[in-house]
Amino acid sequence: MASTHAPAPTAEHVRSAHRVTLLGALVNLVLSLVKIGAGLLAQSQALVADGLHSLSDLLSDVVVLLATRYGRQAPDASHPYGHERIETFGTLLVAGLLVLVAGAIAWEAIGRLQVTGPPVLLALALPVAVVSVLAKEALYQYTQRAAQRLRSDLLVANAWHHRSDAISSVIVLAGLGGVGLGLPWLDAVAALLLGGMIALMALRLGARAVAELVDTAPPEVEREAMRGAAEQVPEVRGVHDLRARQMAGRRLVDLHVEVAPEISVSEGHRIGHEVSRRLRRGFGPVDEVTFHIDPVADRTGRRRARGPQPPLRDALFAELFPDGLPQDVRCLLHYLDDRVSVDLLLPPGTPPPLVTARRPEWLEEIRVWQRAER
Ligand SMILES: [Zn+2]
Ligand SMILES: [Zn+2]
Ligand SMILES: [Zn+2]
Q1: Which of its termini does the chain have fewer beta carbons within 10 Å around, N or C?
Q2: Which one of 82-86, 150-154, 164-168, 264-268 scores highest in mean pLDDT?
Q3: Which residues surround ligand 3, an ion (CB under 5 A)?
Q4: How do residues 353-374 score in pLDDT, each as one tens digit?
């Protein structure tokens, strides 16, 4: 087995991502306070719902900040695979919280639809909603630009979240517009719509986090593509047991690479590293590849059922060569299908060693090679 992985993101990268997220959190903090306050004063349920939405966004910003702080720590003795799943667990927490928020918003809105409440104070609610739309759209533009510069998927997701927040404030505006046109129930309908939007987003986030936490495999097409890329290496005879799982933005892949049976350990290792390099280069999120090298006779040859295994080198020599081996002899052992072939490479002029008369069951053949005189 061997394992390789790509370099970690630079400190500069992490700092920039942090700055963008911090700014977003600050805007969310101000917006949530203003919207909840103004919504309560103006009796606009949709505005309060939007404010609660901003509050939950602030919470998810905090999770993102904590996750980039703790989730990006280098692997250590107690977490040898890294700490990225802290981020995933945080996402699950935020998703659960959002579902609760959405439920509360919907509950309130449904109650409001049944009894006509006090009139909405448009002069206060409307400007706040307009400011919210503008602030969120500006945040979208800013975050999207940073995400492109830093090539960060987390930031892209964050940017689109800002835009969906802008849309949610547009819905509030529409509801308030309805109130202005003499349809007061539109405020509650807008709140209900927001609750549905939040719940949908939360369920999607939560489902993805759970899928990752239980190590759900990537889609079949993706696994096939990875297998195909590995088999592109000419020295690879086949690939089996390819597995992949996700850890936040990283993908971890392990696979068995089938190679010609009599190549050396170092050549097998070299081939494995080439497979690993291609997977990491060809598949963006693939970051760590662990490979296992399997010797196979040909592409179609299936391995026999496992019987008792032949002995390792020292015990095998003791059994095969009762008088020992001559000095300076090089010996290659090929363990295939529960049997061993032995290649002996003798120095010029050295006579072949005495081989035991009791041929062991696991012995395929002994081939003796003599180095040519120079
Ligand atoms: Zn290696
Ligand atoms: Zn949001
Ligand atoms: Zn295997």
Answers
A1: C
A2: 264-268
A3: 256, 294
A4: 999 988 999 999 999 999 887 6
**How many whole angstroms from its chain centre is CA 276?**
16
pLDDT for residue 301 is more than 80: no
**CB within 8 Å of 169: residues ≥ 6 apart:** 50, 129, 132, 133, 136
CA of 252 to the centre of ligand 1 (A): 16
**List of domains in the chain:** 2-213 (1.20.1510.10), 220-295 (3.30.70.1350), 313-370 (no CATH)
Give me the pLDDT at residue 232, please.
94
Q: What's the ipTM?
A: 0.74
How sure is the predictor about 34, in pLDDT bands with cuts at 50, 70 and 90? very high
Q: Return the ligand number nearest the Cα of 271.
A: 1
Residue 306 CA, ligand 3 centroid: distance in Å: 13
Around 347, how many Cα atoms within 13 Å sit in the side-chain half-sphere?
6
Q: What is the pLDDT of residues 239-253, one digit of tens each?
A: 999 999 988 778 899
Q: Compute CA distances 15 → 11, 21, 73, 146, 223, whole Å.
A: 6, 10, 14, 12, 34
Buried b / exposed e over 241-277, threshold 16 CB at 10 Å, is: ebebbbbbbbbbbbbbbbbebebeeeebeebbebbbe
